[in-house]
C-alpha cells in the first residue's frame, strides 16, 4: 500500500493556559488565541488526525489503525498506542497526575493509563516545571493540600530548550508558563487535577479538581525516574537516544546533509521541529517542512533523509502479532 510517509494534518485544542506561539513557531493556522495543544500524531477517540496523502487521504489515523494494520506491522490492540503532542504553555498548566493502565481500566473503563515524556523545544528565561513533590507519606501529602501549602508540597525544576523529562504514571507534574514541549505519551486523555491556582474559565467557573483520585494514583514519596541520554553518530546523522521503556522509545535526530539508509524497525512516528528535509523511499522524494508530523509505515523497509533538520522520532514497544 504505502511506499511513502503518511503525512498528518495537525489537530488543535483550545486550553485556558494556551496562546498563539505555535503559529509563530510553525506557521500553523490556529483557530483561536488560546491554543494549548497541537495533537500531532493521534488516533484517539477525542481527536484523530486526518491523513493528507496517498490511498487513505481524507480518512483518519484512527481508521487506518482499525482497517489497515499492515501499516503498523500487525501490532495488536484496539487503539493506536501512542499520542504525540506539542504543548504551548502560555500560562502554567494545572498541577496534575495520571493513572496507570490497571487503574484506568478498573476506574475509568479505558484501555490505557498515561505515561509520558517531554522534550523541551523552547523555554523562556527562568521557566520552570513542577516535577514531583516533597511529601513522605500520604498523610503529609493530604495535609499539605488541605492547608494550601503548595510551595512546601510541590517540587520545582528550572528548564531550558533541549531538556528531557520522563513522566511515568503517578508522577505529580505541571508545565510552567513560557515552556513549549513535544510530548510522547500513551494514547490516553485521562488527567486528574490536583491544583489549578483557583483559576476560572470564560464563564467564571473554576475547573474541576480530582483530589481523591489524585491521592489514590500519586507516587508517594516521589522518586525521580532513572534515564540515560546517549549520543552517537549513526547512519550519517547525530542520533540521541532519550528513553526506551515499557510503552515507547524516543530519539532526537539531527540531520545535516544526507543520511545512510535507515532500516525501518516496524513503524516510526516523526515530528520535524526545525529545518526542511526530504524523505527518500524507493527512488521517490517526499519533502517535509518544519512543523510537519508523519509516520513511516511498516510497508517501507528502509529510507534515507536529506537536508538540515531536527526530529523527534518514536515507536511503540508493544508486542506485535507477527502478522
Brief summary of the model shown:
It comes from Salimicrobium humidisoli. The protein is mainly beta.
Please give the structural blueprint:
Elements: E1 6-8, E2 11-19, H1 21-26, E3 35-41, E4 43-44, E5 47-48, H2 61-67, E6 82-89, E7 95-97, H3 101-108, E8 116-123, E9 128-133, H4 138-146, H5 150-153, E10 154-158, E11 164-167, E12 173-175, E13 179-186, E14 192-195, H6 211-217, E15 230-234, E16 237-244, E17 248-258, E18 262-263, E19 268-281, E20 284-288, E21 293-296, E22 302-316
Antiparallel strand pairs: 1-21, 2-3, 3-6, 4-5, 6-13, 7-14, 8-11, 8-13, 9-10, 9-12, 15-16, 16-17, 17-22, 18-22, 19-20, 19-21, 19-22
Protein architecture, described:
With 323 residues, this protein is mainly beta. The chain has a domain at 7-51 and 75-217: Sandwich (Jelly Rolls), CATH 2.60.120. It is 13% helix and 42% strand. The protein has 6 helices and 22 strands. The radius of gyration is 20 Å and the shape is globular.
**What's the helical proportion of residues?**
10-25%
Q: Using the coordinates above, name the CATH class of the domain at 7-51 and 75-217.
A: Mainly Beta
Radius of gyration: 20 Å
Run of helices and strands: EEHEEEHEEHEEHHEEEEEHEEEEEEEE
Separate helix tally? 6
pLDDT average, as an integer? 96
Pfam family, one: MPI_cupin_dom
Keywords: Isomerase, Metal-binding, Zinc
Domain Mannose-6-phosphate isomerase cupin: 241-315
Catalytic activity: D-mannose 6-phosphate = D-fructose 6-phosphate
